[in-house]
Every structure is written in structure tokens, then in C-alpha cells.
Amino acid sequence: TVDPSTLCPYCDNPLPSSPSPTLRTLLETMAKKSYPDPRPTNVLGRKAPFSTFISVCQRHRFESDILPEAKSKGWPSAIDWKKLAGRIEKLKPKLQLLIDDDSDDGPRARSSAWNEIMELVKEKGSRAATGVKDQFLNFEKTQPGYYGELGSIIIHQTLYDLFPPTSIDVESIAPLGAEEFLQRVLFPEVALRLVMEDQRLKGNSGRREALKILRDSSVYGVAMFPAEQSAEGKYGSGKLGGPSSTRGSGMHGNTKGRLERW
After folding, report:
1. Which intervals of the chain are annotated as region Disordered (predicted)?
2. Band of residue 8 on the pLDDT scale cut at 50, 70, 90
3. I want to staple 107 with a disulfide (CB 3.0 to 4.6 A). Which of 23, 97, 120, 248 is the partner?
4. End-of-domain residue from the set 51, 72, 93
């Protein structure tokens, strides 16, 4: 006999053995919008309009099917958010080299993000390659992989604290503007280096492997760590579902203050 508490109250499919805080919150919220509907397959079944509960079923299928695959590949299901800004700040000297370097074999030349942009410049010209349309088409390439939307918020805020656009010498990063360089070069570089640290990858082969992980895990990251987590303050404990405040969480400088607004 199946324990009905292990089943989704709406579609009767098995729930993951350890539901995430996001799924638990969805179930709690949906319980207030539905009503009991016991049935032979699930005595704890509930009923609501399909459009109301579909997000619950999508989420538990993600956690039942995609999450195990992510775990098998070593992608994290919990991230120490309170330490993330500090980790990024430690990268500042290496990121500064990307801004200052314009040699043919320096740090910038090893940046896949920069090289892809330069290829587009050769193909389409600088105006087209740096335009809004091209940025939209290459949006996936500027995602932080399994760090998801919440990671994206923290990376962006920390980068803008470390490198205010007005502090960047635009002549050294032409044909990009300061904000474009932050978004399309420094942001992917931070994400790549974070993954390299997580997975203990080194050298050029490590960069290639980290880049593959970033691309492969981006959909997982968006689902696992949505931006809503920041609004709920659930990164305060360092893991999802912890205390609901960033105050005293170890966030640094202005980044801490900015994150408290989310």
C-alpha cells in the first residue's frame, strides 16, 4: 500500500523523497487554493483548476526526474549564498586583468566570452555584435549555470560594487561599453571560475569543462534557484529554506544592502 502522504495531492504521482523548500512552499500555498477530493488512488487528494496546480506538478516532476540527474553530475542542490559575494570579491585581481589586458595571449585572449564577441564583431561589425538584438540571441551564454537566477542577482550586484561602470576605462575594452563588458565578459567569467572552484577544475581543460557545465546546467539552475528565493530572503542561512534575513549573513559592503531590498 502506498503512503498517500508521499503522493502529489493533485496528480497522484509520487513526490520526491526530500522535497525542496520551493516545492514545500508551493504545496502549502496551493493547499489554501484547493479543497479535499479523496479518491481511491489517493485519500489525501485535493482538487483545484488545472491552471492553479500545474506549477506544483511541474516542480515535483523536475525534482523527481531532473534533480537526480543533476546530483549524478555533481551539480549542487544547495549553495552557501552568504559566502558567494566574498568568493566573487576574491576574484577581483583576476577580473581586473580582463579589463586592463589587451595583448594577444593574455587573460582576455583566453576568455571564451570575449573571443565569441570578437568573432561576432568580425562577422557582423561592432554595432550589430554589441546591439540589443545580438545580446538577446546570446542570452543563454551569459547565464551562471546551476547558480540560477538567485546566483545571477548576487553576481551582478557584487560585480557592480567591485567595478562601477564609470570606473572602467572604455578605451581598454572597445568595442564594448562598460556595462556590456560587465554583463557579457566579466559575468560569464565569474560564473565559470565559481564552477571551476566548485568542481576543482584547473587549467585550460578545466575551463572547457566548466564552460560545458555552465551551458548544460542553466535550465536546472533557473528551476532550482529561482529569483523568488531572494524575495523570500532564503539565502540568509547559506542554504535554501534557512532563516529569512540577510542581516548578519556575511554579505559584504553595498552588496549586502542591495540584496536586502530583493
Report:
1. 232-262
2. very high
3. 97
4. 72
